[in-house]
Amino acid sequence: MRRRWLCAILTLGLASMANADEVATSEAIRAELVVDDLDHLVQITSAPGEPERLYVVERGGEVRIVQNKKVLSEQLLDISSVVRKNHPHGLLGIAFAPDFATSGQFYAAYVDPQGDINVGRFFRNKESAPDEDSMTVVIKLAQAFPNTHGAAIGFGKDGYLYVTWGDGGGPAENLEATQRLDSLFGKVLRLDVSKVGKYSVPFDNPFLNQTKALKEIWALGVRNPRHLSFDRKQGDLLVVDEGERLTEVNIIERGKNYGGKVVDGSECAANPCSLTNTSPPLFTANATRSVIGGVIYRGSRFTELEGAYIFADGVSGEVFASIATGATRTTRPIMQLTKNQISAIGEDADGELYIGTPSGELLTLVKPPAGPQLPLQR
Fold it and tell me: How far is CA 132 from the centre of its chain?
C-alpha cells in the first residue's frame, strides 16, 4: 500500500449544512445543472476514446448518453425487461473494455427478476441499443436472500475486469462465506475477459495454488460492496462497502482480507475477534448514512482537491472531500444539495465531477463566477 494512504481511521458523523437555497455550496464550489430528464441515476462515467460524451446508468435498466448538455436519442443499452427494478436492485453499473473505441465491447452488472446477480457482455450497436437478446452472461451468482446485493464492475490499468460481490445476506451461517475461499460471496474478483468465451483467470491471481480456493478471488471479507472506482493516476482500486454499523471505504489489494463477518470497520463484529489478519479501511462512516461513492479527484477545476476522495451522503445531499496530508486524513463538506438526494457521483474523461439524483438530474461541480450570486432556481 502506498504510504500516502497510511493514515488513522476516521469515523464520520456527516453533519448536514442548513441552507434554504436549492444548491448550497462552499464559496469555491457549486453545482450546475446539465440535464434533468433522466431517471434515477446510479452511475456516471465516460468511455475510452469518447471525451465529449457522458454515459449515465439508470436503475431501471437503460444507459443514456449525454453530449453537449443534451440527452441523445441514441442509447448504449436497454435491458429494462430483465432487471429487477425495486430498490436496491436493477441495473447496478457498467464497465467499458479498454479497447472499447475499436471493439465496442462493454459489460453490465444487474439483478435479474429472480434476484440473482449477473455480469453480461455486450457490443455497441449504433443502429439500436443492445438488449438482453445480444447479451452473453459472463458470470452469475444465485442469491438466496434479497439483501446485500452489492455488486460493481470496472477495468483496472492491468486490463482485467474487477467484480465486487456481496455476502449474500441471510442467516449467520451464510455470512461466514465471506471468510471462505470456496465461495464467491463477500469477495472481489479479478477476471480476464480479453478472449473469446466467458472468462479466464489471470495467471497472478493470489489463490491459484490453494486447495479448494476459487481462483477468481482477488480479495475477501467484504459485505455489501456497492461501488468501485479506480484512481486514474495511481491505479488504486477503491470500494465502498456497507457494513452492519459502519460503511467502509477500502483500498483493495491483492490477497487482502477486509474483515467481513469478523470486523465492521475498525470494530469487532464477531466473538472471538482478531484484527491482526484484516486490512483496515481508508476511513469509515456511520452506516445510518447512505454513503455514495466516490472517486479520487484528478481534474483541473479544483486544485485544492487534487488526490481527495470525493463522496456524498445520499440522504442529506451533502458532498464531502476526504484528503490525506502526510499521516493525517481530514474529511470536510464541500457543497450540499438541499432539495435533492444524491444517488451517484462520477467523473468525465477529464476527471471533472458530476452528481446524479434519484429524480433524474445530472449536475456538474464548477467554480462559481465572480460577483454576487443568486440562488439557483429549478
Answer: 23
Residue type, 276: T
Q: How far is CA 298 from CA 7, 175, 181, in A?
A: 20, 37, 35
Q: Where are the beta strands (DSSP E) in 124-197?
A: 136-141, 151-155, 161-165, 187-191
Q: How confident is the model at residue 132 (pLDDT cuts 50, 70, 90)?
A: confident
- Would you give the distance in Å from CA 305 to the centre of its chain? 19
pLDDT of residue 363: 97
**pLDDT for res 378:** 41
Which one, of 280, 264, 267, lies nearest residue 329 by Cα? 280
Contacts of 69 (CB under 8 A, 6+ apart): 34, 35
d(CA 79, CA 62): 6
pLDDT of residue 329: 87
* Continuous H helices in the chain: 100-103, 172-175
**Preceding amide of 272 cis, omega within 30:** yes
d(CA 39, CA 17) in angstroms, rounded, equals 26
C-alpha cell at 232: 486514474
Q: What are the structural domain ranges in the chain?
A: 3-366
Indicate the CATH number for domain 3-366. 2.120.10.30
pLDDT in tens, 190-199: 999 998 778 9
Which residue would you say has higher pLDDT here, 148 or 52? 52
- Three-state DSSP at 67 gives strand
